[in-house]
Design a protein that fits this description.
Its cofactor is Fe cation. Helices cover about 35% and strands about 20% of the residues. With about 325 residues, the chain is an alpha/beta fold. Helix 3 (about 85-100) crosses helix 10 (about 305-320) and helix 8 packs parallel to helix 10. It is globular. Residues about 1-20 and about 25-35 have low confidence and may be disordered.
């Protein structure tokens, strides 16, 4: 399937009041009241300091035009990644590097992306990754201390913030945070084994704060994103976790969940990386969400499998996209 031509033009069609739509380029322009200053030139100049002029509506339009232009652009995406934890972000990083032609939307329920990767374990800050996940850290440019069979990043937030900044810098990737995937878009795809089989064709979304209040408000219908491929990395079962695999069970697309098993680092990490795959037509599952479907062990406070499951998920995705 050849990916559709990417269209990332920035001009926004807006009405000029008498029904005509004009195109307004959002390119950044130099400050109106003179040259941009360097920080050094600003030191000890606070007496005369003042910001360039602004009107509140300019701020509102700067945010809303871009957000709604993004919603329009990504309403048809090539790939949707559900969950911006360490696995989902690692997947996006690899795809962003390899395929600037693909439109990739990341849907993250939390206001803060990053999932469980802001701390190493029990609120300790250092993050452990077993080799060969150090190859991912080298590619990303995250420094670490080498302890032989494993490496240690001095603060998990250094890994996650670096990964997040690289992902957000790709022009073909858009993060919609504070947004929950509430359901999956499906299309009939009967097989000889299952006449009711479907293929996944996108996601159904809503603001997370709306999703949390469906039981105390009237019907607040969702939005949608069409995509021929969804990669779900929503973590193990928790407040938000394991969303897509639980939905596959309730849609009777898989029989039941294996359920995450006890902690066994050496078993868990290999199983998650090697098991990352397309679970049903159009849906790849990686990271700890996979432990719920496969009944894999948990690995506890070591994150190499999250990064490399992301690498594998990206590889599986490109096999499908390029079919
Ligand atoms: O960090 P998580 O939970 O998931 P992973 O698989 O990226 O990383 C797992 C890792 O943090 C561990 O659990 C470590 C290795 N410990 C293992 C162990 O044994 O305890 O990120 C999942 C992300 C979160 O940010 C959620 O907010 C988000 O997915 N999410 C969703 N986003 C949108 N829509 C949803 N329905 C949804 N559900 C979860």
């Amino acid at each position: 399937m050849s990916p559709p031509a990417a269209s990332f033009e920035s001009p926004i069609a807006i009405s000029n009041g008498n029904g005509l739509s004009v195109k307004k380029d959002l390119a950044v322009k130099p400050a109106v009241n003179g040259q941009a200053k360097t920080l050094a030139q600003m030191e000890n100049q606070w007496e005369s300091f003042t910001f360039a002029p602004i009107r509140e509506s300019q701020v509102s339009r700067a945010m809303t035009r871009r957000y709604f232009a993004d919603l329009d652009t990504y309403a048809e995406s090539d790939i949707v990644i559900v969950g911006a934890g360490s696995c989902g972000l690692s997947t996006a990083y690899i795809l962003g590097k390899k395929r600037p032609d693909l439109k990739i939307a990341i849907i993250e329920a939390g206001v803060a992306p990053g999932g469980g990767a802001w701390l190493g374990g029990q609120l300790f800050s250092a993050m452990v990754m077993r080799k060969p996940a150090d190859t991912f850290l080298n590619d990303l440019g995250v420094p670490f201390e080498d302890e032989g069979d494993f490496v240690v990043v001095k603060h998990a937030a250094l890994f996650t913030s670096t990964l997040l900044s690289r992902v957000l810098s790709f022009p073909n990737i858009k993060l919609f945070n504070a947004t929950t995937v509430e359901d999956l878009i499906t299309r009939p795809a009967p097989t000889a084994a299952d006449p009711h089989a479907v293929r996944i064709a996108g996601v159904v979304t809503n603001w997370t704060l709306v999703s949390m209040h469906h039981d105390d408000q009237s019907c607040m219908d969702p939005n949608t994103i069409n995509a021929p491929l969804v990669i779900s990395t929503t973590g193990h079962d928790g407040p938000f976790g394991a969303f897509s695999v639980k939905r596959l069970v309730s849609m009777q697309q898989i029989e039941k969940l294996g359920g995450m098993r006890g902690l066994d680092m050496r078993t868990a990490e290999d199983a998650i990386v090697k098991g990352t795959r397309e679970i049903v037509n159009g849906l790849i599952v990686g990271g700890m969400e996979l432990s719920e479907v496969d009944g894999a062990n948990r690995m506890g406070p070591t994150f190499g499998a999250m990064a490399l499951s992301g690498v594998k998920a990206a590889e599986e995705a490109l096999k499908i996209v390029d079919e």
